[in-house]
Every structure is written in C-alpha cells, then in structure tokens.
Automatic annotation (TrEMBL):
Predominant location: cytoplasm
Organism, as annotated: Cyprinus carpio (Common carp)
Signal peptide: none
Cell inner membrane recorded as keyword: no
Name by which UniProt lists this protein: Glutamine--tRNA ligase
Species lineage: Eukaryota, Metazoa, Chordata, Craniata, Vertebrata
Length: 749
C-alpha cells in the first residue's frame, strides 16, 4: 500500500488524496496503469504536476478503459494540455466507440496542435466589440459583458480563457474609458445590501419577480399560502368535526399572527440548503409581520453535539435574523410521551417487536402485533419507558399508511444514550415523523415550511394531529437548493470532514435567484458574483504579493523611506485610507515582469516601464539579475515621478517592508459538476476530489496595513482577490484564505 501511495503522490496527489484513491480498487488499478504507461513514454523524466493532474482527471472520467493508453500518450506528449481539450477528447471517444479511431478527426475535435496567436485573439475580440459598439456606448459598464465573453469563447474555442478575458477588458476600456461615478452607481434592484439581507428566498414559482425586493417577493408568496386560521382552505387539509373549534382557539392564542420555525437537527454542519431554509422561514415571517422560532430537533442523542447547537444559532444570527425564541424538541419530551399514551388509548398506536432490519424498505410485512389490545400496548410502552427492553427489541408504531406506501411508521424507539439536555431521564426517544408535527402544533405554527423531500409525509403530518384532536398547522413544501461542484448532504459533508478532505465548510449564502417552489440547482459562479458585489463595497484594499520578485530602485538612497497613502476604497476615498512604507527595496509579482516582450503585454519588461499603484512613480528596468539556474531573482530599476514621464500602459501593485504571510487558495472541491451523480462519477463522490482544490503559498508578502487585523476580517488584495484572516493566524505569521477571485475565471472548472 505504501508503494502505491508513493506512486500516486509522484504525479502531484497529496497523501490524503492518494490514500482515498486506494480505497477505490478499480480507480487505483487504472491510475497505476496510466502512470506506468506515462513513465514508459517519458523514459527517465518524471511526470510533472500538470500532466499528473490531467492523468488523474482523465482516469476518473474515462468510461472505456481500452482508450487509456491512447489518451495517456496525448497527455504526456502535451497534445492535450487543458481541461477543455480533455473534455472534448472524452466526449469524442464516447461518441466514437469503434475500434480504430480516426486520429485526424480526433485531433480536430480536441484542438490538438491548434495555436491561437495574440493577433487572432485581438482581431476576434475587435470584431465582437464592433458588433456591440452602439449598445456598449449607450449602456457603458451596465452592458452584460458576459455576452462579449460568450461570443469570444465561441470564436476562439481553444484560446487561453484568461488571455481572452484580458483582451476583452482592455478593448472595452479603450472604447469606454475608465468608469465614471455614474458607472459605479448601483442599480435600484440591488437596494437590499448589505450581504445579510440580500439573501435569496428561492421559492415563488414562475411569477416574474424582477425588480422586487426580498420582502415584496415574500409578501407576494403570502397570496398563495393560506391566511392564519384559514388552514382548511388548503388543498388536502383534513377537516374533522372539531377543526373549526381548534382553529378558533389557535387564533385566540396567536392573534392571527404568522408563525414559522426553522427546525434543524443539531447533528452536523450547515450547508447552503440550510441557508435557503433559514431565509425562507425567517424571511417569510418577517415579511408578514410574524415570528419565527429556532427549534432544535434534538431527538437523536447519539449524533448530537453541543458544537452544532452553537454553530446553528451563530449561522442564523450571521444571516441577520433573531429568533423569536430558541426551543428544543426535548422541551416537550414529557408532553410528547403523554400524547403517545393518548394515541395508544385512542387505538392509533401499538407496541411492536419487529426488529429494525425488518422495518427497512417499503415492502415491510404487516406487524403481527398490530391488533394487540390497547391495555397490553400501554403496559409494554410503560416498560419501554422504564428501560426493561434492549435497544431494537421493541418500538411504538402508529397505525397509518404514508403517501409513499410506508406502513405504520415508528413513533418511539429505545436508545440507552444520555441526552445532552435531559441526561438519563429518558431511554426512549420520539422519531421525526412523530415529533415534528406535534411540536409545530404545540408552538401554534401557522406555516410548516419544508423541502419537497418531506412531501410524502404531509398526510402523516395531518393524520397525527387529527388523531390526537390537536390544532393542525399546514405543511408547505419548497424546492431543495442544490449547488454544482459540491455536495449538500450533512452526512456526506461529515464524511469529508472525517476523512480529512474538508476541514471546514463555509456556507456561502448570498444568492440572487428569486423565489421558487421548484428544485433549484445553482452554479457556483452565481454565488461568487454576489459575494464579489458585497465585498467590493465592504472589504478595504491592501496590497499582497503571492510570488515575490525583489526590485531594487537604484536611484533612491539606501536610507530613503517615505509613506504612501492608499485609499481603503478607491471608488469612494471618503471611506478612509491607510499608510504603507515605500523604500529602495520593493517586491512585485513575478508575473508582472517578462524578460521577453510579447504583443499585448502591458506590464514591466526591459523595454517597457510600468507604474506603481498609489506611489506616484514609474519604474524602468536597468538590470536583470538571475540565479545559478537562470531564473530571474531580482531587478534593478530606476524610478521617476509619474508627472515627469509619459503615462505607462499599466500600473502594478507592490509591497515594501512587508509582513510575511501564508495564503490559501481554494478551488472547486470536486472535479465534476454533479459529484453525487453515478452517471458522472461511478466510483462515488469521494473518488471525485479535485487534487488541486487547495494551494498553500507559505511565503507570500502583504503590506503592513493588515498587521492588526482580527480573525475573519476581510480584505481585497488589489489585483489578486478577496481574502479573510484565518483563525490559524499567529502574531508571527498571518494566514489568509481566499474567499473569491476578483473576477470570474472563464477557464475555471
């Protein structure tokens, strides 16, 4: 096993990923073959990380193993060297199952050998800009720039996406000039800032919600829902002879107020689906002048932990909501038990001795104890309560058939696990099917909002309340929110944490997709766009260098050191500023210097000066210094006041006398769009982990303005991205996590 781990690590997989891969025997075997074939092609040369990642991605997605050596050859010989080409190659193979592939057709389909020159990119973008020129001039920066990128990528299929994006940005800037104050004004439909209150509510059906605020959308939804006290007008609601009396009493107790609840199980990490539930429940109540409870469904003591209780409450508050009250299902354990006794007395429940394995699935044989005498069930239920049976030996079951055909769901089961709140008081615990609707009734909930997966439980919800002659709320279902390139399952997220793949989960929740009862699947870039919009207005600027290149300014004295004032928000300098040092030695990004000039490159070269942001200087290269391996390690430059020289083509960021820091760059955790889909990932979601989902840069530099930052403080590192200070930071070394890049990367997975 150790040898296999070493083999997999030799192509760039980290140790954890290598070990995870070994758990999948078929994947491990195929990957080993691909590595052996690659080594055979390379001879003594090693497989670099880029090729290794391509090999891994290919193996995890390849359906026809007979094409393994064919694709390995193309990857190792650099004929296929991008994700776009690999996807095209796999699609071609899938649609051409014949034994002998036509290599010319394959090469053409995959862009093999295609070189897109800077001139071709420039010309293609120029045609697209010309096509939309009138609309661009009219709408300026409010024009949907995605249209330009879409057309550019179509025209330049095999071009580097980043280069295309840079060319589009440059030509738009050339046409329109810098953004004016009018360009920077926000559109009226973005009035819901800040981040906490702009969150989507994801549920209103097909209605046109364009231009409507969050509260307007939710008040509109009230027109589709029943009014408090008019539960009986809801389709499918069961009316009994006592329904109207119960509704009258309910109105007397609530005053006709809308009452909702967010009822999470405190047994795992919240994800973006919970953000939708939080916003819908709290937002619907708020929009209709109602109240919302935070109720912990703490009926399974084996899986509940205090850290989850705390994290859930913090998440609700982080999203900007304050619960009317924080309650627990366990608050009602005695009342729930008393109601279970009443249910038995009414002939609607019985004690059953069928084992757990016999109750799984949908073709459960009828219980031979279904018609046992009421007094017998009461006696046995009391013995369950007193701990006179073993776990799994007996259960209390309800006499009803659910919509999905499941018969007689369990109401109570035995668990000899101390409860975090009630200790050893109880050894029997109610199930979700029993507890949920009764707690809703006890709290006088008007609208029990839940995801579509609980639709099959609606009839049991109504049945149980009516069987006990209690006030019956109305259950309404909305579509679950899914997100591509991730998983939204607490069980699977916990598995990722336990295996060390994911150390934490931040639920990104600022989603602008309107409200819909249909199941919603979102692309990550929509979330990222909303995050950028918020952080652009709230994260102060700083300068950081991820890959430093030393620059010595030779015409400044050694002792020279001045201070440069940098605005925290360049678009609104009234919001404040900070000071950074400027001295003879500065550091710039390695990518901001090229020794050989290329067409379209605007930054520093031996023949092209560049400006330093905020400093008021333009620098020109005098000498390029290299190390023993021929790599550029230092530049000697001269500087001149920007007022005294011609305006440079570009300005770059820099740092002087900086702080050293660690920077963590995060990418998609999974390689495929739908990692839970067996058709896309036959080996399961754990086999689909992106080996490059985390890059750690241990020797980055950042300006001293962030030196007193607190954990979770957020910054925009100019020209780099948005970052947050990690709790791992120490006084000796700050650690920053990238939240999102400055702009969407069109070449991103």
């Amino acid at each position: 096993m150790a040898d296999m781990v070493s083999i997999f690590m030799s192509i760039g997989l980290n140790e954890q990923k290598a070990k995870e891969t070994l758990k999948n025997e078929a994947l491990s075997s195929t990957l080993k073959k691909a590595i052996e074939q690659a080594r055979g092609l390379l001879g003594s040369a090693s497989i670099d990380k880029t090729a290794g990642t391509m090999l891994y991605n290919m193996v995890t997605r390849l359906k026809d193993s007979t094409r393994l050596s064919f694709l390995t050859e193309y990857i190792i010989t650099r004929k296929i060297n991008s994700e776009l080409q690999l996807s095209a190659a796999l699609d071609f193979i899938k649609s051409h199952p014949q034994e002998n592939l036509d290599r010319l057709q394959f090469d053409a389909a995959c862009g093999v050998g295609v070189v897109v020159t800077p001139e071709q990119i420039e010309d293609a973008v120029e045609l697209i800009i010309r096509k939309h020129k009138d609309q661009l001039l009219a709408e300026r920066y409010r024009f949907n720039m995605g249209i330009l990128m879409g057309e550019a990528r179509t025209a330049l299929k095999w071009a580097d996406g980043k280069i295309v994006k840079n060319e589009v940005d440059m030509q738009v800037l050339h046409l329109l000039g810098p953004k004016t104050e009018a360009d920077l004004e926000k559109k009226s439909n973005l009035e819901l800032k800040p981040f906490l209150h702009k969150i989507c509510l994801l549920f209103v059906g097909e209605a046109n919600t364009e231009g409507k605020s969050l509260m307007e959308q939710l008040r509109g939804e009230a027109l589709k829902f029943h009014k408090p006290g008019e539960n009986y007008k809801t389709e499918g609601y069961v009316v009994t002879p006592n329904t109207m009396n119960l509704l009258k009493k309910h109105l007397e107790e609530t005053g006709g107020q809308v009452r909702t609840r967010f009822p999470p199980e405190p047994n795992g990490i919240l994800h973006i689906g919970h953000a939708k539930a939080i916003n819908f429940n709290f937002g619907y109540a708020k929009a209709n002048n109602g109240i919302c409870f935070l109720r912990y469904d703490d009926t399974n003591p084996e899986k509940e932990e205090e850290k989850y209780f705390t994290a859930i409450k913090e998440m609700v508050e982080w999203l900007g909501y304050k619960p009317y009250a924080v309650t627990h299902a366990s608050d009602q354990f005695q009342l729930l038990y008393d109601l279970a006794v009443d249910l038995i007395r009414r002939g609607h429940a019985y004690v059953c001795h069928q084992r757990g394995e016999e109750l799984k699935g949908h073709n459960i044989p009828p219980s031979p104890w279904r018609e046992r005498p009421v007094e017998e069930s009461l006696l046995l239920f009391d013995r369950m309560r007193k701990g006179m049976f073993a776990e799994g030996e007996v259960t209390l079951r309800m006499k009803m058939v659910m919509e999905d055909g499941k018969m007689d769901p369990v109401a109570y089961r035995i668990k000899y696990t101390p409860h975090h709140r009630t200790g050893d008081t109880w050894c029997i615990y109610p199930t979700y099917d029993y507890t949920h609707c009764l707690c809703d009734s006890i709290e006088n909930i008007t609208h029990s909002l839940c995801t579509k997966e609980f639709q099959a439980r609606r009839s049991s919800y109504f049945w149980l309340c009516n069987a006990l002659d209690l006030y019956c709320p109305v259950q309404w279902e909305y579509g679950r929110l899914n997100l591509t390139y991730t998983v939204v399952s607490k069980r699977k997220i916990i598995k990722l944490v336990e295996t060390g793949i994911m150390l934490a989960l931040l639920s990104i929740t600022d989603v602008l997709v309107g409200v819909t009862v249909a199941q919603t699947t979102m692309e990550p870039h929509l979330l990222e766009a909303c995050v950028r919009e918020v952080l652009n207005d709230t994260a102060p600027r700083a300068m950081a260098i991820l890959e430093p290149l030393k620059v010595t300014i030779t015409n400044l004295p050694t002792s020279a050191q001045t201070e440069v004032r940098v605005p925290d928000f360049p678009a609104n300098e009234a919001k404040g500023s900070h000071v950074v040092p400027f001295s003879k030695t500065i550091f710039i990004e390695q990518s901001d210097f090229r020794e050989v000039m290329e067409k379209g490159y605007k930054r520093l070269t031996p023949d092209q000066p560049v400006g330093l942001r905020h400093a008021g200087y333009v620098i020109s290269v005098q000498r390029v210094i290299k190390d023993g391996c021929g790599k550029v390690c230092e530049l000697e430059v001269t500087c001149a006041s920007s007022d005294s020289v011609e305006k440079p083509k570009a300005f770059i960021h820099w740092v002087s006398d900086p702080l050293r820091c660690e920077v963590r760059l995060y990418e998609s955790l999974f390689l495929h769009k739908n990692p839970e889909d067996p058709a896309e990932v036959p080996a399961g979601f754990l086999s689909d982990i992106n080996p490059n989902s985390l890059t750690v840069i241990g020797s980055a530099l950042v300006d001293r303005s962030v030196g007193k930052a607190k954990v979770f403080d957020k910054f925009q590192f100019e020209r780099v991205g948005y970052f947050s200070l990690d709790p791992d930071s120490t006084s000796e070394k700050l650690v920053f996590n990238r939240t999102v890049t400055l702009k969407e990367d069109p070449g991103k997975i």
